[in-house]
């Protein structure tokens, strides 16, 4: 569900399997680390993001439905070990949030972006779809089941002004318990013409590179 009037800053990114959703997440992290994120926007519109975290639902499955705090969830960024994310490990290695940093995050959600990649792989979709997070307080400092924390993040019930990006395959994206997203984006992939153009540019640039190296 898309609602431009909704106060949540959740963004749904959908795409077929293998279309590049995880690569998109990597690029967001990389662009942020290089101060290139959202540079196409007018300067007055660019949020001052001081904290950007990437979590995969594949990781969160390992936590099952243990009761944890948001701080403990975010610290999971330091355990990225999937080959898809090795390019970002240097960003996340020191992801050890102390008390003062976490309090800053809670009090300044506008400076936070959290990316949740691979909702279609999450084993606790029914928990989110059933709105069971309502059994727990809207407090980022409190322990609650992992699925409840994810649901509250997506629905803007904690860190309300933070940007939360969730990626999913199209079919599973409908199983978010009626979550209202600020925006919905589809990664459509290349058309046949764009594929041809990309291949031509790739080999042209490769030839130039080889000529410079010889």
From TrEMBL:
Record GO biological process: positive regulation of MHC class I biosynthetic process; positive regulation of MHC class II biosynthetic process; positive regulation of transcription by RNA polymerase II
Tree of life domain: Eukaryota
Gene3D superfamilies on file: P-loop containing nucleotide triphosphate hydrolases
Alphabetized PROSITE patterns for the sequence: NACHT
Domain NACHT: 9-171
Keywords, ordered alphabetically: Leucine-rich repeat, Repeat
PANTHER family: MHC CLASS II TRANSACTIVATOR
Name of the protein in question: NACHT domain-containing protein
Organism expressing this protein natively: Pocillopora meandrina
């Amino acid at each position: 569900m898309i609602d431009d009037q909704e106060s949540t800053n959740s963004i749904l990114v959908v795409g077929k399997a293998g279309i590049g959703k995880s690569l998109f997440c990597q690029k967001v992290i990389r662009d942020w680390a290089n101060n290139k994120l959202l540079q196409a926007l007018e300067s007055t519109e660019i949020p001052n993001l001081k904290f950007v975290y990437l979590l995969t639902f594949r990781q969160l499955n390992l936590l099952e439905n243990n009761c944890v705090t948001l701080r403990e969830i975010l610290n999971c960024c330091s355990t990225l070990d999937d080959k898809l994310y090795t390019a970002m490990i240097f960003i996340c290695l020191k992801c050890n949030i102390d008390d003062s940093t976490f309090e800053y995050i809670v009090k300044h959600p506008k400076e936070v972006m959290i990316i949740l990649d691979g909702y279609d792989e999450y084993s606790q979709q029914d928990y989110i779809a059933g709105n069971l997070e309502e059994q727990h307080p809207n407090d980022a400092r409190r322990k609650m089941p992992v699925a409840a924390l994810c649901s509250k993040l997506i629905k803007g019930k904690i860190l309300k002004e933070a940007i939360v990006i969730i990626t999913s395959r199209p079919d599973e994206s409908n199983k978010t318990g009626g979550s209202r997203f600020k925006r919905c984006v589809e990664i459509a992939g290349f058309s046949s013409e764009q594929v041809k153009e990309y291949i031509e540019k790739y080999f042209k640039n490769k030839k130039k590179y080889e000529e410079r190296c010889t």
